[in-house]
Every structure is written in structure tokens, then in C-alpha cells.
Amino acid sequence: MGISITIASGKGGTGKTTISANLGIALAQLGKDVIILDADIEMANLELHLGLEGMKTTLQTVLAGEADIKDAIYAGPGGVRVVPAGMSIDGLRKIEYDRLGDVLEALRQMCEILIIDVPSGIGRPVVVSMSVGEELLLVTTPEISAMSDVLKTKIVAKKLGANILGVVINRALFDRTDLAVGEVETILETKVVSVIPEDPEIKMSLSAGKPVILQNPNARSVHVIRKLALELVGEEGSDEEIEIGPAPQEPQGEGIIDRLKGLFGR
Q: How far from chain centre, in Å, is Cα 9?
């Protein structure tokens, strides 16, 4: 049985799906058998990132009891296999979320690594994925407005017994508007495992309908995503380290951090 890694965030716009797609391909490039599941059933986007829109059999049809999960797995770019969520408005009415847990367990039997791209927030698909999934990566942007949302997600994950691998800070500008790594770790009480820079190549790759790791393998963000993939599988990094920005700023004061940490009961 393979392991599962749920990719979760507290709010939209963090780049969670971009990370799910490109991290999955990076792991496949390391020789791992990877399936990426789009569990964001209501706002499906993964198929757009991977060029698999319009597939007839999807997670929607499986959760509606109209298909077997084996029939919803497609060959994706870069050596990954993909389960698209589906984009049918009518199909949403037929979904039975109680089937999701069994689907996740079945997919884990079919691969070495299952990447689960869940919706933002703490809705039912997120809770089920965290309950069934073994590992969790939290994705956030380095903004104070994003911290309360991802903190809620982290608290729910801990209550469900998820093993939190760490926090990925995405879309970092490395200027004084960003929270420093130490500030994020203090607020979330969780280690930051990767800091991915804001990268215009990602937007260009999305316009081309191709993951940035394949569109531009030398992009700044790709180097960092590859390094994260290496660390997840426990291999020494052969990907060349690059300078992605100035050193993090000194903490901007403990007041807002203390207030955020006190918002939710532990």
C-alpha cells in the first residue's frame, strides 16, 4: 500500500493546486509511482493544470456510484496518473461523500504515493481526506491575512490525527510585506519545510495548459519544488541550490502573532 499526502490550505489563492500538480510530477521524475487526485469536487481545477479537462469518468461519477475508481484514472503529463474531479454541475447533485473514504483507500492500493489536492477550508472532503490520509502538507502565502485560515486547518488536522509534515510558504516575494519564516512557524507551531518564490513562469505555464516543471524546468519555483520532492522521499538533493531572495525580515512584533495564536482553543 502506498502513502498519501494531502495538500491543504486555509483559503483560496495560495497556489495549492499548482503545488499538487508540480510536486506530483517531481516525485514521478524521481521514479515514484504517483497518482494525483483532485478532491476539490465543487471547484475542480487540477484537470486544467494538467490538460485533462472534459474526461467522461471522474471522481464525481465514482462518488455518484456510476463508475469504478479504476475507470477514473488517466495518464497525465510527466509520468503521473490523475483522477480528475469533474466539472458537471448536475453531477454534484448525485455525489455521496460517504464513498470518498473507500475511494482514497482503493487509490492507495494502486500507487506508491497518492497526492490529494483538497478544497480550501475545512469542509467535508477535507475532513475525510485528513482522516484517511497519512501525511499532510499545509500551504499558505506569507501574509498575515492568510494565517488565521491555515491555523484553523492545522487545528482540525491535529484533532483528526493527521501527521503534519510541515508548512509550504508559496508565492513569497522576499520583501518587507512577507511574514518571516520564524513568524509563520511561531503562529502555526509547525516547521516550514519549503519557501516557493512568486514566479511569473507559473502564470505563463498555466496559460499554456502545462505544468511549470515541464514548461520551464529551470524556473526558480521548480528548483524549490524539486528540492521538496527529494526531501519527502528522503534523498539527498542533487538539484542545484539557487538563491531565491534576501534573508527573511526580522519579526514585525509579537502582538499580532499572540492574537492569532489566541484566536482558537487548542
A: 7
Q: How many CB atoms lie within 10 A of CB 250?
A: 10
Q: For the chain, give every domain's residue range.
A: 3-261
Whole-angstrom distance, CA of residue 224 vs CA of residue 132: 28
CA separation, residue 241 to residues 23, 97, 130, 221 (Å): 17, 42, 32, 12
Q: What confidence tens digit (pLDDT) does each residue in 214-225 have?
A: 999 999 999 999
CA 101 – CA 3 distance, rounded (Å): 14
Residue 108 host element (H or E): helix 100-108
Query: Residue 71 carries which DSSP code?
Result: G
Identify whether the C-beta of residue 47 lies closer than 8 Å to the C-beta of residue 84: yes
Domain 3-261 superfamily per CATH: P-loop containing nucleotide triphosphate hydrolases (3.40.50.300)
Share above pLDDT 70 across residues of the chain, in percent, rounded to a whole number: 88
